[in-house]
Amino acid sequence: MSAKSQHNNILLAIIGFVAVVIIVAVIGFFALGRDPEMIQGQVEVSEYRVSSKVPGRILELCVKEGDYVKVGDTLAIIDAPEVKAKMRQAESAKNAASAMELMARNGARQEQISGAYELLQQAKAGLDIAQKSYERVQRLFDEGVMSAQKRDEAYANYKAREAQVKAAQSQYDMARNGARYEEKAAAAAQVGRASGAVDEVTSYMHETVQTAQMEGEVSDVYPKVGELVGTGSPIMTISMMNDMWGTFNVREDLLSGLKVGDTFKAYVPAFDKEIEMKVYYIKDQGTYAVWKATKASGQYDLKTFEVKARPVSKVDNLRPGMSLIIRK
């Protein structure tokens, strides 16, 4: 066999092998297709942290992690002796203000009113005598047997006694009416101020007993019994199991026109079944969340969007942290 024939046979063999590989690849592409795109998310739950407005020492923890609590259930009791001391101070201040207001409202004591009344009667008696004396002197003056000097002295004494009656009447009225309107109003305002202080400390007293504001499951308890907690320090976290949703990070080329209100199927590996979910939130993740850069090939960056969806119907035993799979 010549060298030329041998060379042609090798070339034909190579071409045939390449053709077979290409045919197999084409067949595999159309027969098997591409692997489906998968988007993985997870179940999230709404939470709120239990904390107190007052600092103190944890006296008792009434629940533990995993307990399910309802609205009003006692969660923790805090020992705050400083708040108790402030309550005693506020109550004492209120009692003092109430006593001052009562005194202003009741006015003078009965003995003072009686004394002012007696002085008024004494002044009236003196006025009556002075008036009669003046009238007698005036008649004698008219008859010419009394000098004008004596008449003027009697008249001055009469007027002086009249002024004393008015002064005694004012003292009696003041003793009977009590304090001025402004003094009564000021005393009432002091009572209101003291009552406000009591209400404020009472609200702090309520903070020493922490109760559940929403029903849910205790997911975390932070301090131990006997430990100190500061103002606003979290004591425990409550997961509201009735408010769960799924969150997904979706590349924009996989959104496929997804919008708020759309429904889709998500596979839950924990239950080996699919659940129906409804989208209620879509927001871009910002420039830092680029998943796939394509600028090198003259195209554009593919950004990531956060998609949140809630189960259309209640799913029993669904727990936060469980995986959710979307197959595209």
Description:
- This protein has 328 residues and is an alpha+beta fold.
- Helix content is 45%, strand content 27%.
- It contains 5 helices and 12 strands.
- It has helices spanning 3-32, 81-106, 110-143, 148-177, 181-207; strands at residues 38-51, 56-61, 68-69, 74-79, 209-211, 216-221, 228-229, 234-251, 263-268, 273-284, 304-311, 323-327.
- Strands 1, 3, 6, 8, 9, 10, 11 and 12 form an 8-stranded antiparallel β-sheet that branches.
- β9 (263-268) and β10 (273-284) form a beta hairpin.
- α2 packs antiparallel against α5 (181-207).
- The mean pLDDT is 83.
What are the SSEs and their pairings?
Blueprint: H1 3-32, E1 38-51, E2 56-61, E3 68-69, E4 74-79, H2 81-106, H3 110-143, H4 148-177, H5 181-207, E5 209-211, E6 216-221, E7 228-229, E8 234-251, E9 263-268, E10 273-284, E11 304-311, E12 323-327
Antiparallel strand pairs: 1-8, 1-12, 2-4, 2-7, 3-6, 4-5, 6-8, 8-11, 9-10, 10-11
Helix pairs in contact: 2-5, 3-4
Percent helix range? 40-55%
* Shape annotation: rod-shaped
Low-confidence stretches: none
Oligomer: single chain
- Strand fraction band? 25-35%
- How many H/I helical runs? 5
Quick summary of this structure?
This protein has 328 residues and is α+β, with helices and mostly antiparallel strands. Helices cover 45% and strands 27% of the residues.
